[in-house]
Design goal:
By secondary structure, the chain is an alpha/beta fold. It has 20 helices and 27 strands.
Length: 645
């Protein structure tokens, strides 16, 4: 604690001293009683009398500063601090009044009267421990939207239950996998404990799917406006309000948070929710904040976090990750992005459309190197058309801090590209080089659970760890780190852990999507997979430029397509890639066919509304059917028709 903070805390203690401080008591105004409060003018009197301030104007300024620091507030939040007969209440008394050991405190109650979108986490002495947890985890702008979010996913001054029973299943981690495991287990009658160290909802709600897609919707609208003249509609160049875009994201995230809330899981689903760090004590016992919880079965669902590459100097600069980029309040004029995977490409396009000059770095010869090469090429052209600078095949030499003539912080990235060495200056730097499983600092050794920092928790096909009582689900143990995979791996855990099931993770057919504009969606195997395994195959491709609805939508020019791979001389679908504006929605038809073991020939019989872009999938089925019309078959059919006629 610094000297200034210590001095002001001493001052507050003196003000609240029952014998020598100001009068703090219940006060009445008209027909309402306001408990445990003091009068503004009396505090000014006290500061002048006790030598804290040399005059009433100085005392008033001190009081206003104290209110801005959340040390006290007006009882109805209607007034700043004034030297008048107005009622105020100290933060400690507010917490006592609301019941620190009883009713939970709302984060919005901790906001100052003049809170704005830029207001950061306040310093409330009685909540210092919880504030420090959140500050360490993420510098979350505490506006009214994030206050609602936190009330749901990390209530202020939350009290853990007793946890004196043996749980049917104990879940560590409240991201997608953990929440589904807890909710599903409770739904079938199990007694469930759910432990979360930080924010319920995990990455998906707080730092992943939800906030990113909120931003991407705004970016898509901007892209549509730039092309709207093709439709004969002419508008003035749009004014882009980055602060409003970010505020919209925070509002929508808060709107969705009740589904992942402590209240829902405790009160509606009957789950015992614990907020704290889980550490194993033995093969069937976990400690959380001093409480020892025993379990019959356990599911580790601790997720993953941003992997930071080893680049000289990177850890010394204030770089962004998928967590902190959504806390930005000001649009960076120059944004650098290390990593050209899905997150990097999505954010590159979005921020370029918002108005940043974006440069994205790729170590390899292609962006989205895990995707179909033709699909990645389409996205590369789309990013470049939005003004994104793409630097491939680069080696990172160093990252460092710098200051310009106005003493503003800048970040310098030094790279080598071939024989050329260059330095590029940015205002913000996003690191998006993949994900690493969260598996450390849980005492997994005491639970006889094997793991490593690369693969995470080691599990078998049934998602069972090396301890037969303990399972794992989601990003901490699976190769495909997607929310929907976390969801369905959790369903496997419920079946296998509670009902002696034998469901296997390998049985899942997993689609995924990169939400650039256009989107890339994929399911199954890639062509390179089949080449490596020397599996005979055939490819059928329908280009959007030959699809009526895409032409009408002005979607025919960016190079989109529907590509489906089947076994050689068979309609069995092995994999598919779609590049289209709504590829993520379209891929589910092919995924359904693969799950149901329906081939391309059957898809060709499915009637689609005309005109739709999804009808292109049916047309790919027609393309397969035409391959069955061999010269011999064609000759036989011609003879048959001649006979009939």
């Amino acid at each position: 604690m610094n000297t200034a903070t210590n001095e002001i805390n001493i001052l507050v203690t003196k003000m609240r001293d029952p014998s020598n401080g100001i009068s703090i008591k219940d006060r009445r105004w008209f027909f309402r009683t306001y408990p445990t409060c003091f009068v503004g003018s009396e505090l000014v009197d006290w500061m002048v009398t006790n030598g804290v301030a040399e005059s009433r104007s100085v005392a008033l300024a001190i009081g206003q500063n104290m209110l801005s620091l959340n040390l006290f507030k007006h009882v109805t939040k209607d007034h700043p601090f004034k030297d008048e007969y107005l009622f105020y209440r100290f933060a400690q008394d507010e917490l006592t009044l609301r019941g620190i050991e009883g009713e939970n405190i709302s984060w919005v109650d901790l906001l100052p009267v003049n809170a704005s979108n830029e207001q950061m986490l306040p310093a409330i002495p009685a909540l210092d421990q919880e504030m420090q947890i959140l500050k360490t985890f993420v510098s979350l702008p505490l506006d009214v939207h994030n206050s609602r979010l936190l009330d749901n996913v990390h209530p202020a001054r939350f009290n853990n239950p007793e946890g004196s029973i043996t749980y049917n299943i104990l879940v560590i981690g409240a991201g997608a996998a953990g929440l589904v495991t807890a909710a599903g287990s409770a739904g079938v009658g199990a007694k469930v404990a759910l432990i979360e160290e930080n924010l319920l909802g995990g990455d998906c709600l707080n730092f992943g799917c939800v906030p990113s897609k909120a931003l991407l919707r705004c970016a898509r609208a901007i892209g549509e406006l730039k092309e709207i003249h093709k439709l004969g509609v002419y508008v003035e160049p749009p004014r882009i309000d980055f602060a409003a875009i970010m505020a919209r994201m925070r509002k929508l995230r808060a709107d969705l948070s009740p589904n992942d809330s402590v209240s829902r899981f405790q009160n509606e689903l009957g789950v015992d929710v614990f907020i704290g760090k889980a550490k194993f004590l033995s093969k069937d016992t976990v400690d959380v904040d001093g409480k020892q919880l025993k379990f019959a079965k356990c599911c580790i669902a601790t997720g993953a976090s941003a992997a930071v590459p080893q680049i000289p100097g990177l850890l010394e600069v204030p770089f962004l990750t998928n967590i902190t980029i959504f806390n930005l309040q000001l649009l960076p004029p120059r944004l650098g992005i290390i990593g050209a995977g899905p997150i990097g490409c999505e954010m590159a396009q979005a921020f370029a459309r918002f108005g940043s000059q974006v440069t994205i770095f790729a170590r390899s010869a292609s962006i989205l190197e895990k995707e179909d090469i033709d699909a990645a090429s389409v996205i590369e052209k789309a990013l470049e058309s939005d003004g994104v600078i793409i630097i491939k095949n680069c080696t990172f030499l160093s990252v460092s801090n710098s200051q310009n003539s106005e003493e503003k912080q800048q970040i310098v990235v030094k790279i080598q590209n071939g024989t050329d060495i260059s330095e590029i200056i940015f205002d913000q730097l996003l690191v998006s080089t993949g994900r690493k499983p969260n598996v450390t600092d849980m005492n997994l050794e005491l639970a006889s659970v094997e793991y490593n920092n690369t693969d995470g928790i080691l599990v078998n096909e049934n998602l069972q760890t090396t301890n037969a009582k303990i399972y794992a689900a989601g990003d901490c143990c699976t190769r495909f780190k997607y929310t929907h995979v976390a969801d369905f791996s959790a369903r496997i855990v419920i079946r296998n852990a509670l009902f002696w099931g034998s469901a296997k993770i390998s049985q899942l057919i997993i689609p995924w999507c990169t939400y650039t504009d256009p989107e890339i969606a994929h399911v199954g195997l890639y062509e390179r997979d089949l080449q490596q395994s020397k599996t005979p195959y055939q490819i059928f491709t329908k280009h959007l430029k030959d699809l009526d609805r895409a032409i009408l939508d002005e979607d025919a020019d960016f190079g989109g397509f529907i590509k489906i791979i089947t076994e050689k001389n068979s309609d069995k679908i092995l994999g598919a890639t779609i590049v289209a504006r709504n590829a993520g929605d379209m891929i589910s038809e092919i995924t359904t066919a693969m799950v149901a073991q329906v081939g391309l020939s059957t898809i060709s019989t499915v009637i689609h509304p005309y005109p739709t872009q999804a009808d292109g999938i049916r047309q790919v089925g027609d393309m397969y059917n035409r391959t069955r019309l061999t010269p011999t078959t064609r000759l036989l059919l011609r003879k048959l028709l001649e006979t009939i006629s």
